[in-house]
Structure formats: structure tokens, C-alpha cells
Specification:
heterodimer; A: mainly alpha; two-stranded antiparallel sheet; 1% strand; globular; B: two-stranded antiparallel sheet; 2 strands; 77% helix
Chain lengths: 302, 306
């Protein structure tokens, strides 16, 4: 009977809805990070180990802006814009100065250069902002709680879901309904052919890397009010994004969305069902998928 | 030509003197640094066995190092085995892990293979972290005492030197045997090798098992040198260590990773003593080396030769 009573939340629609919404909010955030990782991999075949560190950088930039300008909605909006632009420029510069020279080298080199950037960013953050954990308040006006149908839920997380949907639509429009997006998708298929057709492929690579890191920085700023902003922030995000990208298919944007929503829900409900083993589940899923379907749920076999 | 031979000979003599007599004259701290170079040299060579010879970028290679280290600690502390039996058995545990992980990995290519080894590494890491009773959780396991001759830093150094030298000799023989040639052939062109009658899958699988065996041995030795094991050895940040050493030294030669290990350990020891922000310099160093020395230190040496 004890077993049953510990599972009685299964029949409680309030708990179910709350967990579902929390999972959705986290899934949307995860999507923003994983979409950038997947996009970069799809175009340049580089696994960006520094992606979590860029997320962290975005959160720290937001922290700095909000500590100066207060936690009003305009100030937070400015923080979002600056974090996105800053990380976009950072990514584009990193691509132009470092990555561009080694696309023809073995994959270990590309892996390692992004890893070097993890070390640099990790220490740069400690040097600039210190070792302590920081937090910022949820922007005024978004800090309330709504109770639709008796389920209480923070407004900020609802806003997160909304922003996620908007960005998702924007990305889809950019990549699938736009000439530039068409070129990006062409670059994932055949870089040489695209170059032979007279397209400046190098610029596409730079912009895609910047777009990817910009998305990560944006996600970091967006997450800043609900996470603890410390030098260790990047690790968990990176690993989660890896899992998402593998589940969805490396290089597939719809896959990143599906994977992020799945991992978001798995995290939300996994901790309820088997608390001590929830953190193992993503890796088991990752292993099973890589063995059975290495190209992911929505990717295409190479 | 004579000049080059003389340089190599003098270098070998100086190297031999440092390796054999060095630990007698330096402090215990530096003896530990020497041990670290040896252990990570072996570890990096096993990584390069997969990457440089087998063409397999196993960026979760730390799983085998970690499994070897934890196998030793668990055999000593939970099963009550003595040091020698635990050290002998630990590599077989990691080789078994290599057999299981390799079985699935060899079917994949490129980045997918790397991701799968990485997923296994992270799975092992989270299990170790969650299992307090068995694997010590985030405290790790400590109190792995060595007694007798190997109980002193210097004694342990000579034991490590002997074990690592024997292992490297075995690996050197392996890569220069017909097996090693076939392994390199499948790296160049798997399909043609198959047509020539080479069992590519079997070669790749055995390479995984052998690399896991010696990586586990390195892990076990490192655990004894530290008298403890830590879960951080399995975390994703540990992934880069053997890759950095291999690329630093050069992945196209057998001794490259050993040279890389020596430089890396020296650099890290020097930087950690110098500044709190050593990772900043290490990261910058990694980025610069990749951009400026794509063939590693040994590549530089070779290009001067020709």
C-alpha cells in the first residue's frame, strides 16, 4: 500500500499539470541551447564543448546589467539583448580567429579547441565575477503567480514558454522560409557544391556559429532569474544539451525541439518516479539511441 | 646525419639518467610529478592506440581510466584484496568494460563513436556519484595504502616505471606487429581492408579491449599514487586530458603522446604553482598549440628532420 500511496500524485491533476508545465518551461530553455549546438554541428561538424560556457556567459552578462539597471522589464529586456549580441559577437570572433583555420584538421582538434575555450571562459568568469554564486530577481511584473484551474504556476515560467515558442517560430522562419536559411541548409548537405555555386560559405559558417552561441547566450540570460549564477553553471547545461542533440539527431532542428521537450518532461517526472536514479536516465537513453539509431529520432542516416 | 645521431644518443643518455636517478635527488613532490608523467604517458598512448592507429576518436576514454582506478579501490576497500592482487585484477575489469563498450562503439563511425564513449563515461560518472556505499559518492574512496618497498614515493616510482615501461614495450610491439599494420590499414580504408580479408570489426574491438586494459592499469597506478580515487576522474572535464597530451605530442608517432604527457604535466605543475587561474593559461595554450602546431611537438621534430 505504501508503494501505491507514494504514487497517488499520478491521479492528482494539479500535480500532473504543474510538473508538465515546469517540464515544458525547462524544455523550452533547453531547446534554445540545444538548437544552437545542433545548428553548429549540422553546418560545421564541430561539437562545441564551449556551448554551456557561452550559456553561462549570457547569464553573467544579464546579472551585471540587472545589478546596475534594476529588475524592471525594460532593464531585463536590455540584458537579454546585450547578452545575445555579446555572445553572438564572441562566437563569430571565435569562429573567424580559431575554428576557421582547422576545419580540415582531424575532428579531435576541433573538439579540443572548443574545450580550450571552456577552460578560458570558466576562469575568465571567475576572474571577472568571482567564485560566489549569484542570483537576480525575476523582472517586476513577471514575478507573480497565476492560478488557472486551481494550478498555481509562476508567471515567469509561462513567459519562458511563450518566448520559447516565439524563438522556435523565428528559427523555423529563418531556416526554412528564407533565402539565407536555404543556404545554411545547403551548407549542411554539401559545402563544396555551395561554394562552387559562388556562395560565400565562410560567412555562413561564421554567422551560424554566432547564431548558435547567440542563442545559448540568450538562453543563459533568460534563465538567469531562475538559476544560481556561478562558475559551475555551464556543466549541467552542456551535458543536457548533448543528450537532447543526440536524442533528436545531430544537426536536426525539429529533432532538437522534440529532444528538448522530451528531456524537459523526463527531468520533471523522473525526479518524482525514481528520485535517486533520475539523473542516470538521460545517459541510458543516449546510449540506447546511439546504438540503435545513431542519427537520432528525427535526423537522417548519413 | 652523424650530428642528428649524436643528439639522439646524448638525449637518450640524459633521459635515462633523469628517469633512473632523478627521483633520488628531488623532493617527494617532484617524485609525484614524475609518477604522474609516467602514468599519463601510458594513458595517452592507449588513447592514441584508438585515435592515431585505429582512427577511432573515443573522447570518453576517461571511462576506462576511471573504471581501472575505481576497480582497484573497490577491490581493496570493499573486497579486502591486497594491493598486488587488486592492481593485477583492476585492468581486467576495465578491459571487460572495454569489451562491452567497444562492442557497441566499433559499429559507429566518426563523432557518433565518440559520443557513445562519452555517454558511457557520463553514465559511469553519475552512477559513481550516486552510489555512496559502494563507490564513495562525491568523496571518492581514500586510504589506498601501499606497504613495503613501494610504500615510499621513490619505491613506488620505480615500480610504476617498471610497469609503465613493460606496458609501453608491449604496446610498441603490438602496433608494429601484423595486427598493428592491419589496424592502420582499416583506419586508412576500411572497405579495402575488408576486401583484403582483414576482419575489421574484430581488429577494432580488440583494440578497444587492449586500450581499455592499459588505460585501466594507468588509472589503478594513479589511484595508488594518490592513495585515493575521485569521481572527478570520470567527469566530462577529464575527457580532454588524454586528447590534449596526444595532440600536444603528436598523434602520428608512438612516443608523441608520452612527450605530450611530459610537457602537459610539467606545464600544469608549473601553472598551478604560479597562479590560481592556471586553467585560463592552459586553455589559451591549448588553443594556440592547435593553431600553431597542428602536428604536435613530434611533428615539429620530424619536419626539421626532412
Amino acid at each position: 500500500m505504501d508503494l501505491l500511496s507514494s504514487f497517488d500524485w499520478l491521479l492528482n491533476p494539479v500535480v500532473l499539470t504543474r510538473q508538465f508545465m515546469a517540464g515544458l518551461a525547462n524544455g523550452m530553455l533547453l531547446f534554445l541551447v540545444a538548437a544552437g549546438l545542433s545548428l553548429i554541428f549540422g553546418v560545421s561538424r564541430v561539437i562545441n564543448f564551449a556551448h554551456g560556457a557561452v550559456f553561462m556567459l549570457g547569464a553573467y552578462i544579464a546579472f551585471t546589467i540587472v545589478s546596475f539597471a534594476g529588475s524592471s522589464i525594460p532593464a531585463f529586456f536590455a540584458a537579454l539583448v546585450l547578452a545575445t549580441c555579446g555572445t553572438f559577437l564572441f562566437g563569430a570572433a571565435f569562429e573567424m580567429l580559431c575554428l576557421r583555420r582547422i576545419y580540415r584538421s582531424p575532428q579531435a582538434f576541433q573538439l579540443l579547441i572548443t574545450f580550450g575555450m571552456v577552460l578560458v571562459l570558466g576562469d575568465a568568469v571567475r576572474l571577472i565575477w568571482g567564485r560566489e554564486e549569484n542570483s537576480i530577481a525575476v523582472p517586476e511584473g513577471l514575478d507573480g503567480i497565476v492560478r488557472p484551474f486551481g494550478v498555481s504556476f509562476p508567471v515567469y515560467r509561462l513567459a519562458l514558454i511563450g518566448v520559447g515558442v516565439v524563438i522556435c517560430y523565428g528559427l523555423w522562419y529563418l531556416l526554412y522560409r528564407n533565402r539565407w536559411g536555404m543556404l545554411v541548409r545547403a551548407a549542411t548537405v554539401d559545402r563544396e557544391m555551395l561554394q562552387a555555386l559562388g556562395v560565400d560559405v565562410r560567412r555562413i559558417y561564421t554567422l551560424v556559429f554566432g547564431l548558435g552561441t547567440g542563442l545559448a547566450g540568450f538562453a543563459g540570460a533568460l534563465a538567469a532569474p531562475i538559476v544560481s549564477i556561478g562558475p559551475g553553471l555551464h556543466a549541467e547545461v552542456l551535458i543536457d544539451a548533448f543528450v537532447v542533440v543526440v536524442i533528436g539527431g545531430m544537426g536536426s532542428l525539429p529533432g532538437a525541439l522534440a529532444g528538448a521537450l522530451l528531456v524537459g518532461q523526463a527531468n520533471a517526472f523522473g525526479t518524482l518516479i525514481f528520485p535517486s536514479f533520475a539523473i542516470v536516465v538521460p545517459f541510458i537513453v543516449m546510449i540506447v539511441l546511439l546504438i540503435a539509431r545513431p542519427w537520432g529520432l528525427l535526423g537522417k542516416p548519413e | 646525419m652523424m650530428g642528428r645521431l649524436a643528439i639522439v644518443l646524448i638525449g637518450a643518455v640524459i633521459g635515462a639518467v633523469i628517469v633512473l636517478a632523478g627521483p633520488q635527488v628531488v623532493s617527494d613532490f617532484w617524485v609525484f610529478v614524475f609518477i604522474e608523467m609516467l602514468v599519463f604517458g601510458l594513458y595517452a598512448v592507449t588513447f592514441n592506440l584508438l585515435l592515431g592507429y585505429g582512427g577511432m576518436l573515443a573522447f570518453g576514454h576517461a571511462v576506462f581510466f576511471g573504471v581501472g582506478a575505481y576497480a582497484l579501490a573497490i577491490l581493496m576497500k570493499r573486497a579486502g584484496l591486497d594491493v598486488v592482487s587488486a592492481t593485477v585484477l583492476a585492468p581486467f575489469v576495465s578491459a571487460s568494460a572495454g569489451a562491452v563498450i567497444g562492442y557497441f562503439c566499433i559499429r559507429l563511425s566518426g563523432i557518433y563513436l565518440g559520443m557513445l564513449t562519452f555517454a558511457f563515461q557520463m553514465l559511469t560518472y553519475t552512477i559513481v556519484l550516486k552510489s555512496y556505499d559502494f563507490a564513495g559518492g562525491d568523496d571518492g574512496i581514500s586510504g589506498l595504502k601501499v606497504s613495503g618497498f613501494a610504500g615510499t614515493p621513490c619505491g613506488f616510482y620505480y615500480v610504476t616505471l617498471a610497469v609503465v615501461a613493460l606496458s609501453l614495450f608491449a604496446l610498441w610491439r603490438l602496433v608494429h606487429s601484423p595486427f598493428g599494420l592491419a589496424l592502420r590499414a582499416q583506419r586508412g580504408n576500411a572497405r579495402r581492408s575488408m576486401a583484403l580479408g582483414i576482419n575489421v570489426a574484430l581488429h577494432r574491438w580488440l583494440t578497444f579491449i587492449i586500450a581499455a586494459f592499459f588505460a585501466g592499469l594507468a588509472g589503478a597506478l594513479f589511484a595508488l599514487a594518490n592513495q585515493s580515487v575521485f569521481p572527478g576522474w570520470l567527469n566530462w572535464t577529464a575527457t580532454a586530458t588524454p586528447i590534449v597530451m596526444t595532440i600536444l605530442g603528436g598523434m602520428h608517432s608512438f612516443v608523441g603522446p608520452i612527450v605530450g604527457s611530459i610537457i602537459y604535466v610539467l606545464l600544469q605543475t608549473w601553472l598551478t604553482g604560479l597562479t590560481e587561474y592556471w586553467a585560463l593559461f592552459l586553455g589559451t595554450g591549448i588553443i594556440l598549440i592547435i593553431m600553431l602546431l597542428p602536428n604536435g611537438v613530434m611533428g615539429l621534430w620530424r619536419s626539421r628532420k626532412s
